[in-house]
Amino acid sequence: MDSVRVAAAAPDAGPGPAWQSKCPWGAPSTTSISCSLADVMSEQLAKELQLEEENAAFPEVVAAAEGPFITGENIDTSSDLMLAQMLQMEFDREYDAQLRREEKKINGDSKVSISFENYRKVHPYDSDSSEDEVDWQDTRHDPYRADKPTTTPRRGFIGKGKDITTKHDEVVCGRKNTARMENFAPEFQVGDGIGMDLKLSNQVFNALKQHAYSEERRSARLHEKKEHSTAEKAVDPKTRLLLYKMVNSGMLETITGCISTGKESVVFHAYGGKSATEDKVIPPECAIKVFKTTLNEFKNRDKYIKDDYRFKDRFSKLNPRKIIRMWAEKEMHNLTRMQNAGIPCPQVVILKKHVLVMSFIGQDQVPAPKLKDVTLSSEDMKKAYYQILNMMQQLYRECNLVHADLSEYNMLWHDGKVWLIDVSQSVEPTHPHGLEFLFRDCRNVSQFFQKGGVTEALNERELFNAVSGLNITADNEVDFQAEIEALEKMNEDHVQNHGKKLSTFSSDGDPPIYDE
Ligand code: ADP
Ligand code: MN
């Protein structure tokens, strides 16, 4: 059945109210309708975006969908699946309403009551009508920000046994306050499976997971969606569409939950699936970094990218959405450079717009701890220090990069070594502020390891020289900083005069390489 014909056939059914009275599931209340429409619309929006994206290949379909009965709200009924889902959702609602009546009848005034909650068809999130309607286009509402900061896990959600148990309890106890979960970090509704993960052996859990997964695949797509609705509310429809595509294509097996919600990104954990192409291997576990498409947080990062000559020509021509994609692109390029130099870092799997999929540093959904959160033996601490010193040198010389946000927050401890992450803001050393960024990195690293008891740790100025190979002799911070800025200015003048950058800063001979 073609959707266009459905829309065209509608006039036979008479005017709007008549159609409503003939509705096979009775006349639903206005609120339930509006909720239903909102649900469908977000799906529709995703659909529209997809259509738009696919080169407006079928513009007539979209146009035809704007029939006489889709007034005010621009609902595109261009797919039979969508119609079927709309119908199914209404039936489910009706079923649940009936269930609620039964429940009430059985319980009566009894002090002990039984709940049919678990037999409901519609996810409680969907049935809460008013609060869950988030206007995705409204950038004043930042869907990534948790309203209650305490509910945002600082790291791994496995470690958040409390959090998971809370969700679990909430499910068992009838999910009364589901609406409140909107304020949680954007976590995918994982039901009981994740809760079990804490109690069962990996083997049993994996078997369960596998089973649950294939079950889920078999069940209606609509239901699958309901399972994930909490997380969906945390990313905008475009992002949701991208994530769906990744799962639907089989590239990702399943997206399990959120690892981190930062100011500029949200990171999810996913189990890798199968690549469409033979040559590419998807890591068993992946991290999905979604760069925020709300713009305010990125304003203060302009200086990183605007002055990065690699992006200079493009910057002025781009709209803000594209600039955000550029952050993801930058992270991808930088990670690739690092990978090629053999620096331990996430391996890029795929970049789609502002969504970067990379290998997961950690195991069994538990991300590796940040250096700031892990207590290392003094031996490991020393080892970590020398490793970082080496990595900073490699980064500078082999990758021609300065991390520019290097600190114990962006270094993970995994497999007995340090892994560098979060390189979207990394710049080349000849960036107008590149050396200042490097100096700041050095300060963070020096302070962390000096406080951490590594007596061999160079001070920030020594570290700067050791990494850059420059030989700045100033023996105090202020003068040192001034020399750095003078070098940067020299480079800029060179750019002005010669139209291109120095390939590198000149140094007095080979810089010392620090080895263990
Ligand atoms: P932000 O800009 O928000 O700081 P990051 O890239 O630092 O973005 O990611 C935020 C957090 O997500 C990290 O501190 C880390 O805990 C986790 N994370 C990011 N990427 C990975 C990864 N590839 N593997 C494991 N955890 C990761
Ligand atoms: Mn970070």
TrEMBL record:
Keyword Metal-binding: yes
Localization, UniProt: Cytoplasm
Molecular function, one GO term: metal ion binding
Gene behind the chain: Riok3
Ranges where the record places region Disordered: 124-161, 497-516
Protein name as annotated: Serine/threonine-protein kinase RIO3
Database matches in Pfam families: RIO1
Keyword Transmembrane helix recorded: no
E.C. designation(s): 2.7.11.1
One GO cellular component, as annotated: cytoplasm
Binding partners and assembly: Interacts with CASP10. Interacts with IRF3; RIOK3 probably mediates the interaction of TBK1 with IRF3. Associated with 40S pre-ribosomal particles.
Record's compositionally biased regions (Basic and acidic residues): 137-148
Reaction equation(s) it catalyzes: L-threonyl-[protein] + ATP = O-phospho-L-threonyl-[protein] + ADP + H(+); L-seryl-[protein] + ATP = O-phospho-L-seryl-[protein] + ADP + H(+)
Cofactor: Mg(2+)
GO terms classed as biological process: defense response to virus; innate immune response; ribosome biogenesis
PROSITE patterns: PROKAR_LIPOPROTEIN, RIO1
Class of this enzyme: transferase
Species annotation: Pomatostomus ruficeps (Chestnut-crowned babbler)
Family to which this protein belongs: Belongs to the protein kinase superfamily. RIO-type Ser/Thr kinase family.
Keywords of this entry: Antiviral defense, ATP-binding, Cytoplasm, Immunity, Innate immunity, Kinase, Magnesium, Metal-binding, Nucleotide-binding, Phosphoprotein, Ribosome biogenesis, Serine/threonine-protein kinase, Transferase
Residue intervals of the RIO kinase domain: 224-469
Classification via PANTHER family: SERINE/THREONINE-PROTEIN KINASE RIO1 (PTHR45723)
InterPro entries registered for this protein in UniProt: Kinase-like_dom_sf, RIO-type_Ser/Thr_kinase, RIO_dom, RIO_kinase, RIO_kinase_CS, Ser/Thr_kinase_Rio3
